[in-house]
Amino acid sequence: MESPHARLTGMTAFTVVALSQFLSILGTDMTVVALTIWAWRETGAATALALLGFFVMAPTVLFSPLAGALVDRWNRKLVMMLADIATGVATAAILALYLADLLEMWHLFVGGAFVGVFQSFHFPAYSAAATLMVPKDQYSRASAMISLAQAAGAVFAPIGAGALIGVIGVGGILAIDLVTLALALGALLLVHVPQPEVSAAGLESRGSLWREAGYGFRYILARPSLLGLQLLFTVGNLLSDLSGTLAAPLVLARTGDNALALGTVQSTGAVGGIVGGLVLSAWGGPRRKIHGVLAGWAGCFLLGLVFFGLGRTVPTWAAAMFLSAAFGTLISASNQAIWQRKVPPDVQGRVFSVRALIAQVAGPLGMLIAGPLADHVLEPGMRPGGALVPVFGGLVGTGPGAGMALVFIFAGVLGLAGVIVAYSVRAVRDVEDIVPDYDAAQEPAPGTSIEESASDGAAQPLAGPVPRGHAGRAGRTR
Q: How far apart are CA 340 and CA 60, in angstroms?
């Protein structure tokens, strides 16, 4: 057991970790920007960029349940450190290949998959650690600080990468990433991360590793309100990844491969994340967090995706990215606060991992579809004289990037319809009343359900039998 003596604790410790994560995220995001530009110049295809995201995301999703079970068994600070070390190993390997002039696209795919496996451990460990490091009434602010760190990295990374890539090259940017990773590891050594007390749910979930890995599924399935809430994220992330994967190639295609234009759009857009994080850090979010989740998704789809697809200039794209990032912060912080209040800390690794799996399982599919859909269907169809021009030409214009713009508009409209459906479902809309907080709930008896009997949020027996025995560094919406 880690001793808290001579180490920072509480909100001070969490603030140190959040600041170090900002530096680490900044280095990683600069690397992503540099490698995106390198890959686009090497291939000129949206499919290649989509595959980069896929090979990171797919292992993260697939390994989540097993990672969650191990996080609950192991020291959470150690798990976070191991995930950062693995990222550093992959970055160092890519740097060595680049300096030797041997780097190829498949190297990035392999490196991304390796990082993805270890990042499946980072999110549940970080989330579960935050639950114990800060007071319950500070959950929303802590989540906002995480989102703020991610957004700040996204603001400065494109500017930094754009300014430095011509001076120190891709290799120099990769070296900076390694330095920031070392700083993040050093910060973790300075803080105390508590381990949770064992709850009734934790005792019931104990068993073999595979049994514990499946506990997160049983926990969420026994609480249809939490499942319904997270299914909204399945749809949202599918549509966001389907369109968002094409953001960089769309801007590059419509600006003649202008890296400065891409950096301006990404950096200006990410200011929205900073603004959202600052506002939420001071405000704490809406009293009913579900309104933050649903209103945030509606804003992302309508003012983010649709607006981005309709845009044809850098200011318009930047404004859309700004709004999308600001609403994304509201979504992540509100959703995280709900789950931290409903799930006992000692099983959050398992439950949060499955929560991430449900939220992200369709994301890799969106990434796989995005590239071929753009390269082989929509982009050819929106060229001058193309088959789709008579229908959509007046909406998005013609030529390079027009087909990708349609993806944003379609995704935004479908997503907005999904939010309207979610608002109409009581199990989702009233999740905070239906599922009691973990420190007020009684475990349901076999054959009963919290959601059948907790009509007003009181601690009463959930729906379905009791299971026996879950805004990472990437900052995705979960």
A: 21
